[in-house]
Amino acid sequence: MRDDAAGMNLLELAHPELALLAVVAILAIVATAAQKSKLPYPIYLLLVGVGIGFIPGVPEIEIEPELIFLVFLPPLVYAAGYFTSLRELRRNLRAVSLLAIGLVAATMLTVAVVAHALVPGMPWAVAFVLGAIVSPTDTVAAAAVLERLKVPRRIKHITEGESLLNDGTGLVLFSVAVGVVVSGDFSAGDAAFKFVVNIIGGLAVGVGVGFVYAALRRFNQHGPTDVLLSVLAGYAAYMPAELLHVSGVLATAACSIWLGWRTPKIVRDPETRIQINAVWVNVNYAINTILFLLVGLQLPRILDQLGAGNGRFWLDAVLIGLVVIVTRLVWVFPATWIPRRLSARIREDEETPSWRNVFLVGWIGMRGSVTLAAALAIPLTVNSGADFPMRDLVIFFAFGTILMTLVVQGLTLPKVIAVLKPAHDNDFFERAEAYARLKAAQAAITAIEAVNGEEWAREDTIERMRGMYEYRIRRQGARLDDDDDTTEYEERTRDYKRLVAIAHQAEREVLYTLRDSSTISDEVVDVINRDLDYEDVRML
To answer: What's the maximum distance between 2 C-alpha atoms anywhere in the chain?
Structure first.
């Protein structure tokens, strides 16, 4: 038990806002330091959030459980879906479905059985709530590791698609299980019907909202408004679905994939597209930071109430985390090989992956923000007015599972990849990229030639642009043909980028000098700096 008097210090009583400011500053420093490390930043946020929760004087922050889903889930799910490739999701739909539906159900069942056996008196319905909470994987935690490692692209696409769709299936199962605990009634038929309706209804609402939203955004020509519309899109899909008592998470996921696929055509202004992408990257990061902080602040109180100092609950949490990890590893091999054994068409259309690639998919199963949000969203009471049974214990086990998967799998993933040496499919992507750039450059030259001779099209400008695109065509053609000139072109391109970087840095230094001497305003510096940034980004 913590000494309550230790928390009642002068800082807490007189200046709680200073304590909160210190918490934010610590998290900002830790998040910055985490980016310099090879470890996934959720590990840092989780551990530091817990450490902050034990600091005397840190104010207690309580959020109503029903607000957790409403505030945090729509942007969290939308950000994941917005950057998901619809083409790759379709291509890997069978593998993703077996993980996002079959594995989620299997994880919920195995965790429920183990938790019910480990914890005396834990009701089956509460055990299934815990199983549903820890069943979805986390795309942010996995991406934080995968983006720094050389992983086969299909594995990356499968795990991203899985983590997007299993958020929906896991939280639908969560809502069903919570409903059983709150009401005290259970019917297998009603539960199955509710599960199916939630999925179909959520997807339908999401696609419908995405269609309407896309039509609305086509008529908007104001960049900041379009950014705002993008930020609100997740809520626009989530809230109608919840009002119709279908899955708001799946509605948000469907809407985000729909709009992410169409945004390049809907949003014509390149500056707005860059802003939208930047906003979603930062929103996703900020929400994860807040969720980990909330759990860290609540964990000391939960431990006090559980009396978890004897280590019994810690051991149970470790065992449940191991069950989650082992269930995934046991599932992925038959889910990969049995469909190929049963279907000749699958064997003909798809190459059978090596056991190394299959094991790697099984090892990329970290839990994170969605599990956190679900745990914090458990109701405080049931319909009778009594406390939700074992709520604090379920939250503690969810925290333990996140910690186990992040530490055991997240920290070892680089070593696992180095040992396994999985078969890569990156050559296919690189050739497809070269082909697309080649065709795009050829189309650009055709468009330039079409306006050659018009009064406004100056010959020297046309020649300069033609030369740039002809160079791109030669470079991408060499990449496709595996010519010996490929290395030379890449070296020349690298040297060109280096020269441009030197020139741009010189421009920026002059701009800052002029600004500091009050010769030009900050606004002028921002406009020119933005143009230089665009040139840096679009250099190919």
So the answer is: 85
